[in-house]
Amino acid sequence: MNGQKPTPKGATTLMGGVGPAKARLLASVGLHTLEDLCLLTPTSLTRWPAPLTSGPLPEEGLTRVSGSVLSVKLVRMRGKQSRVTLVLDAGGWEAQASFWNQPWVRERCVVGDQIELCGEARATTKGPELLGPKIGTERDPLPAPGALVGNYPSPKGMSGHVLAGLCKEAVQLVGQQIREPLPEHLLAAGDLPDLPTAVQAAHDPRSGVAFEAARRRLALIPLLALQAQLAARRAGSDKGGGRPVSIGPDLDRELQARLPFQLTPDQSQAWKVLARDLGRRSPMRRILQGDVGTGKTALAALCSFAVVEGGGQVAFLVPTEVLAEQHHMGLAPLLDAVGIGYALLTGRVRGEERRNILRRLANGEVSVLFGTHAIFQKGVEFSRLDLVIIDEQQRFGVGQRSALMEKGKGAHLLLMTATPIPRTLALTVYGDLEVVTLRNGPPGRGDVHTRWVRGQKTRSIIPWLAKRMEAGEQVYWVCPRIGKDGDDTPGAAQARFDKLCEDERVNSFGVELVHGKVPAEERSWRLERFRRGDIGLLVATTVIEVGVDVASATVMVIEQADRLGLAQLHQLRGRVGRGPLESWCLLVGAAAAEERFTMLLQTRDGFEIAEEDLRRRGMGDLAGLRQAGNNLEGLSTLEQDLDLLLLAREACQSDPRLVRELAHGPRPLLAP
Which of 180, 270, 319, 526 makes an SS bond possible with 195, Cβ 3.0 to 4.6 Å? Predict the structure, then answer.
């Protein structure tokens, strides 16, 4: 580009020095246009230091030195590894720097050249050195001391310095064409600069305060786009014309009387909310969240009873066959007691059995259908689907959820999760849904103690388990992988099962093995033996993370627990403590997971754990939105920008025009 005429939204290849190869690198991180480069925000700022005036180098910290090159040596190692060692005469003292896998440094830095180096200092056995510092020369100097320079999230194969230069060039080319699309009152509410000012300040900051204000204004762009998409989705669901379910006081009492227990205060309050939602003409869009063991399934049962009483059908979708079988078996007596037809449909149900279920479902004989992904496949037709319940909903993508919802016009939707949703996540990913929360479990349950067992103490596990089983209690032993016959490496369920079967201290109580490769019927039979108390110790993979409820199981041993995430460990721990007896969760794992283990030892609060898991894993892992085409890149500072998130949500709720303009993503910001 020669700069003589404006480029409204040109490709990056129109910039000087950007050929096809460099353009592909930029495109790999979503930078396709000059506008994209203008709106890219540095992740942080660096204030460039003044050069050291005397030695030696410090042992840590960002350090700058200048002088003449005394020596430069390239050493090639095995493979493609290399190291350049450079020694600088910094005016009466020597400074050493190392450059790994940058052999070009030897050609650029010649003995006698006057250069500057700036990088992180580190201590070595031969004294402090600079590791991979930036090089400044008379023709290409480093930023002046005190200058603020942004650190950019560059793609692999391109330095942050190069990307920073491209961003600044893009601002020079088209920065004057950027317009502010938001009303002044919205910017004022967030104390934000206008967009042209923010773009300039982000790439050429005059102060840390100006940069932070610019960063926040640019962070508002993806937040507004996401909230607009959620608002549009919410508005679309309201047009579905759901069939209201009238739940008067008499029916309410009758429905609750079908349960074999009284609702807890938490459950009672949540049921009032759900019953009110079911009675509205706009379809219910609700997430029921609660820690493991708080009684979500009982509320799902009440919703199902109510919908069936109104003449509708219920689809009860879960991610695993184990969980589908658990719900099917657990609710069957309640459904049988009032003559409600039900069936279980999973991938293993085939042939005549499957055809019979589909026929009964289509003619309305089956009112409640439990199942896995098989439910939303073609050929599964409901007579009148009025309620979709999805348990462990975070394991399903938005597209899968929509495929099931399309089987019932205006169907109500109840999502359930035992992985509590942090407020930030609820406001972003689930902004089109309302959340109701269960915080307390039923009374009369025993305490659960968590311990990290390591070193020599692991030898005491099996004798201790034998004592628990001798007292009539049962044990889970979870391994992170299945393993094969003859595989005795740690963490293999098959190997652990073989060893326990040979151990006379525990094998007399009965040992069983379940994992994903065990045929479904055989797995169900083994789990049923454990539920009945026929065996004392169940070795399993994480297939039992959800869907197994045994009151007499009081011990959970998790082998190689360091290989599992916080939320998954908490879910597994929730398999014990479901009865009145004191229970235990033993974490056996490496010290690398000490921080994770310490948190589990300190709290059983699933909400606190979920917040920490979100911080560790990031939004994309928990959201599941990538499956639906939404992009959460650029939302990594949500916790610190919660006020911006709320501002974006409020703006989209109060301004339909904004929703219409942004519902398909951020709009172009360059004037035509």
Answer: 180
Phi-psi region of 494 (alpha: psi -120 to 50; beta: other; left: phi over 0): alpha
478, β-bridge pairs: 540, 558
Residue 305's H or E segment, with its range, is helix 296-309
pTM over 0.85: no
The one-letter amino acid at 181: P
Nearest Cα neighbor of 152 from 259, 34, 31 is 31
Element (H, E) at 195: helix 195-203
Q: Structural domains in the chain?
A: 1-46+149-177 (no CATH), 49-142 (2.40.50.140), 274-438 (3.40.50.300), 455-588 (3.40.50.300)
Around Cβ 53, how many Cβ atoms within 10 Å?
Answer: 9
Q: How far apart are CA 320 and CA 344, in angstroms?
A: 12
Pair type for strands 94-100 and 82-89: antiparallel
Which residue reads 């950007």 in tokens?
18
CA atoms within 13 A on the CB side of 651: 29
Per-residue pLDDT, 5: 40
pLDDT in tens, 257-275: 999 889 999 999 999 999 9
Q: How far apart are CA 370 and CA 317, in angstroms?
A: 6
Q: How far is CA 336 from CA 331, 345, 368, 424, in A?
A: 9, 18, 11, 41
